[in-house]
Design goal:
The protein has 257 residues and is an alpha+beta fold. The protein is 18% helix and 35% strand.
Length: 257
């Protein structure tokens, strides 16, 4: 069967950030164009988050039920069709067969770190608004090395060190206060009544996943396909490391403590 004729991969990571193990059915195992043994595996469902939205791919293992065959997942690729391919190498055994049930296990420590970093980026949006900077977030990078959020426009305050201290204090005050993170999936039409603004890039014929970081604060509500903490307290602490001008925009870098 052609891949495009198969149903989209069920993205279980969207439902539960803290599901570290699961089962799935193998649909296809394919060789890549390289000679280094790298393969791609298509499953009916997955808990592995592919790189996207500024968040890195999960890593981990796919094992046969008896443990004799093990595939190390090094990265993932998500297609517009909704299919998610697991890329890596077999480190034990030779291959899986179509319709074979397998066991999935992601790297728990990395998943939790990525969730904290991604939620921290959204929390920075809230802190920006509460500190009086009404700049829209443009893009973000939530990798452990070099995390940042880039905002459209400039911060006029010439004292960047003072701004860093204000933002950092606001972020950590929000973390200390805590707030349950809510996730919901709605139609594109319904999203208009929840989001302050519905981005143009969201397809009108697909559901919209909305993450609300801080209760009753619209600055913390946005469409997102990433993994997040259950409560902002789990972010622990944020350190704002740098503010720099990127063209007409402002990039604010951060890390976790």
């Amino acid at each position: 069967m052609n891949v495009q004729d198969r149903p989209a991969t069920v993205a279980d990571y969207l439902a539960n950030t803290y599901q570290f193990e699961s089962r799935a059915v193998v649909l296809e195992v394919s060789a890549t164009n390289t000679d280094d043994g790298v393969k791609t595996i298509l499953l009916d469902r997955t808990i592995f988050h592919p790189q996207g939205g500024g968040q890195p791919s999960d890593t981990g293992y796919i094992r046969s039920a008896d443990g004799s065959t093990v595939f190390a997942v090094e990265s993932l690729k998500a297609e517009k069709s909704g299919h998610i391919f697991h890329i890596g190498k077999f480190i034990e055994g030779e291959t899986f067969t179509p319709e074979q049930e397998v066991c999935l296990q992601i790297d728990r420590q990395l998943r939790e770190t990525y969730a904290r970093l991604h939620s921290a980026g959204h929390l920075l949006d809230v802190a920006m608004t509460r500190c009086g900077f009404s700049l829209k977030p443009g893009k973000g990078c939530h990798f452990p090395e070099g995390a940042y959020v880039e905002y459209i426009g400039s911060i006029q305050d010439p004292d960047k060190d003072a701004v860093i201290q204000r933002l950092q204090a606001e972020c950590n005050a929000l973390i200390q206060a805590g707030s349950s993170v809510a996730v919901q999936t709605v139609s594109h039409a319904e999203a208009g009544s929840i989001l302050p603004e519905v981005p143009d890039y969201l397809p009108v014929d697909r559901p919209v996943r909305i993450v609300s970081l801080i209760s009753d604060d619209p600055a913390g509500v946005c469409p997102c396909g990433g993994t997040h903490v259950q409560d902002v307290k789990q972010i622990d602490r944020i350190r704002i490391t740098k503010i720099q001008k990127k063209g007409k925009n402002t990039r604010i870098s951060y890390s976790l403590e």
